[in-house]
Specification:
Chain A is of the alpha/beta class. Chain A has a domain of about 120 residues: Rossmann fold (3-Layer(aba) Sandwich), CATH 3.40.50. Chain A contains 8 helices and 4 strands. The termini of chain A are far apart. Chain B is about 20% helix and about 25% strand. At the A-B interface, loops of A face loops of B.
């Protein structure tokens, strides 16, 4: 029996049954827009990942929004100085839920080679991070692997998590529901 | 900038401002004058405005901490002339408890940010500066990082022997070494 494209409109193709969690998570992972947050050298690798040779628009990240109000994912690419930290926190707070943070590179994850008074020793001091990508800078393939890991994590999220995010904050909500 | 240092300029300044120049040093084709704070503005204005000198570009303005030597601080200026392609270096030594200098932003407006940086990193204040605030560190930071007695501010690196001691400061638990 052959199915034509018309059949899915008329209903002859049948039904697909899934759960709300799976459907919503599928939608969230397939069109996650990153926020332009390239701070230092890792930004070059992020641009390389966005460009045509390694292309993350095939994962739904067609464009990077400069405005936090219109983005879902904050890729912190580069070292964060102590002067920049309150700015980063403010931008994270301006992002609407659901939001995720991917810490790209060694400087954003742990402070990298800069173990001193001026650089934040890991962006997880101020924002809750979902995925850490190691590297100095991470190759585009590594960043894509980090993004796919984040997609796998988002696919596994549950309804109980969503309901409490806004009030409690994500990490605390996950810890309470776990 | 590349260019030539001329001993004659240093001698001319020494002659025009008797008593202001403490020392003239020549090192590997560079000429440096150590001057005192009271004549700083006059000498810099003289360098900029005199025929034949015409130093119209402030190439460098930076600070040094010579602790434990006294006088502790030094502020160095390097002037360059586009017209004649020559350079001259100036040095003003300052004490710890008296780290104030007149600002040369009235002569060279480009000295605004370098002087802010010297204030931020060493604590040397500049009188008459139009915008005396920190430039590299956050505005409410205490301490002046490039002084020799300022701590490095590093975080102890976590190895297996001190994993528990450093763990208390971490916001997220660290991965443990696997039991093989």
């Amino acid at each position: 029996m052959g199915l034509t494209p018309q059949d899915s409109k008329t209903g002859e193709a049948g039904f697909v049954v899934t759960s709300l969690e799976q459907a919503v998570n599928w939608a969230r992972t397939r069109a996650m827009w990153p926020m332009l947050f390239g701070l230092a050298c890792c930004a070059i690798e992020m641009m390389a990942t966005q460009a045509s040779h390694n292309d993350i628009s095939r994962f739904g990240m067609e464009l990077m929004r400069a405005s936090p109000r219109q983005s879902d994912l904050m890729i912190v690419a580069g070292r964060v100085s102590r002067k920049m930290a309150p700015v980063l926190r403010r931008l994270y707070d301006q992002m609407p839920s659901p939001k995720w943070v991917l810490s790209m590179g060694d400087c954003a994850s742990t402070g990298g080679v800069f173990n001193n008074y001026a650089i934040l020793q890991g962006v997880d001091e101020i924002v809750p991070v979902d995925v850490y990508v190691a590297g100095c800078p991470p190759r585009p393939e590594q960043l894509m692997h980090g993004i796919l890991t984040l997609h796998a994590k988002v696919q596994g999220e549950r309804l109980a998590d969503w309901a409490t995010w806004g009030k409690l904050g994500k990490q605390q909500a996950e810890a309470e529901n776990a | 900038m590349s260019g030539y240092y001329r001993r004659e300029h240093a001698d001319l300044i020494d002659k025009t401002f008797p008593g202001a120049v403490k020392e003239i040093v020549e090192f590997r084709d560079q000429v440096r004058l150590e001057i005192d704070r009271e004549h700083l503005l006059e000498i810099i204005t003289f360098c900029r405005d005199t025929e034949g000198l015409e130093f119209n570009y402030l190439s460098e303005l930076n600070g040094v901490d010579y602790w434990p030597d006294a006088p502790r601080f030094s502020v160095n200026y390097v002037l360059y002339s586009f017209l004649h392609n020559h350079l001259l270096q100036f040095k003003v030594r300052l004490d710890d408890d008296d780290a104030v200098l007149p600002s040369i932003t009235s002569i060279f407006p480009g000295a605004n940010w370098p002087e802010r940086e010297v204030y931020d990193m060493f604590g040397i204040r500049f009188e008459g500066h139009p915008d005396p605030r920190r430039i590299l560190m956050p505005y409410d930071w205490t301490g002046h990082p490039l002084r020799k007695d300022y701590p490095l501010g590093y975080e102890e690196v976590q190895f297996t022997f001190n994993i528990d001691r450093v763990e208390v400061n971490k916001p997220v638990p660290s991965p443990r070494p696997r039991e093989e």
